[in-house]
Amino acid sequence: MAALCGAAALAGTAAAADYPQRPVSIVVPTTPGGTADILARLIGPRLAQRWGQAVVVENKPGAGTLIGADYVARAKPDGYTLMLTFNELATLPALNPNAKLDVENGLARIGKIGSLPVLVLTRPGIDDADLATLIKRFRAEPGKYTYASNGSGSSLQLFTEIFKREAGVDVMHVPYRGALEASMAAIGGEVDLLVQFASGNVINHVKGGKLNAYAVASPQRLEALPAVPDAPEAGLPGLRLEAWYGLFAPAGLPDDIKLKINRDLNEVLAEPAIQERLKGINLLVQPGTPAEFDTFFRAEYARWSALIRTLGIKSSE
After folding, report:
1. pLDDT score of 77
2. CA–CA gap between residue 58 and residue 36 (Å, rounded)
3. pLDDT tens readout for residues 214-237
C-alpha cells in the first residue's frame, strides 16, 4: 500500500512538472472590456510565457456570470480550463435558487488576485455639492431617479441596493448587459446614479468630468482621487463595498497542478511591470495560497447569501 501511495504521489508531481502540454483557456464570464476581462488579458500572456503554451481568453457572459461559471464547473478538472471572475460568483446560488451550480463545491479556488474599491457616482448634470445634498435630492422625489447595473442580481445592483439602504433613498433600477455598458449609460445621461468599481477607466472618466464622484465606499480615500471623501467622511460609515477578483478551476483539480498555477500566478502578480499596470487600473494586489482564497471565498459566500435574502433580490435571468 505504501508503495502504491508513493507511486501516486510521484505521478502527481510529474503531472504538475509537465503541465501544461497544450493551450490553456481562461474563461471570463462577462462581456469584453470589464475589469475581469482586462485582468485575464494582462495575466494570460505572462502565464503563457512561463508555460511555453498559449493562454486563450474566452468571454462567456450571461445570467449574472452563471453561464460562464457553469461551463467551467462542467469542464474536465485537468487545469486546461480556468476561470477569472469576481465577487459576483459568491452571490449566484442565492440569486438563482433553481440553478444547479454549487459554487462552494463545484469550483476549486486557485488564488485571489486583488480587489477594487467602489465609488458612488452620478451622470454629468447632477452637480450636487456633496453626498448629503445628493441624498436629499433623491429623498425629495422617491422613484424619479434611476441607477445602472450590469444586470439583475449583479454586483452593481447589490452594491447600489446596499447604498440605497444605507442612504434611505428610492432609486429605480435599469439593468445593462455589462459593467462597461452601465458606465456608458451614466456617462451618456441615460441613468442618474452609478455605484461602480473604481477601475482605471472609471477614475479617468471622473478626472475627465464625464462622471461625478461623491464617495469611496470604504473607510479610506483613494490615492487616485484624493479629493473624493471616504464613506464615513461623506456621512455613510456603514457603506463598505469592494470588488474582488480571483482564479478558479473545476472541482477535482489535482492539488499539485493547483499549487503550480497558484505559484505561477503569484509570481506574475509580483512582476514590477504587472504591478505598475495593476496600479494603473487601481487594483490592490492580494496574492495568497489556494487555502487562504478558499477560506475567504466561503466567508464571502455566507455573507452575500444572507444579505441577498434580507434584501429580497432575485436574478431575472
Report:
1. 98
2. 11
3. 999 998 899 899 999 999 999 999
Asked if 89 and 270 touch (Cβ cutoff 8 Å), the reply is no
3-state SS class at 205: helix
Examine the pLDDT at 145 and tell me if it is beyond 80: yes
**β-sheet bridge partners, residue 298:** none
Residue ranges per structural domain of the chain: 24-115+243-311, 117-234
| pTM of the predicted structure, to 2 decimals | 0.79
CA–CA separation, 213 and 229 (whole Å): 9
Q: What cell was used for 66?
A: 452563471
Model confidence at 252, pLDDT cuts 50, 70, 90, reads: very high
The residue written with cell numbers 466561503 in the block is: 298
CB 119, CB 283: distance < 8 Å: no
Could you give the CA distance from residue 29 to residue 39 in angstroms, rounded to a whole number?
Answer: 13
CATH number of 24-115+243-311: 3.40.190.150
Among candidate residues 261, 227, 233, the one with its CA nearest the CA of residue 246: 261
Of 290, 265, 300, residue with least CA distance to 88: 300
Provide mean pLDDT across the span 126-149. Answer: 97
Domain 117-234 in CATH 3.40.190.10: yes
Element (H or E) spanning 244, and its range?
Answer: strand 242-250
pLDDT band of residue 96 (cuts 50, 70, 90) is confident
Query: 305 is written with which cell numbers?
Result: 447569501
Q: Which run of H or of E encompasses 44?
A: helix 35-51
Place of cell 422613484: 143
Contact of 10 with 242, CB cutoff 8 Å? no
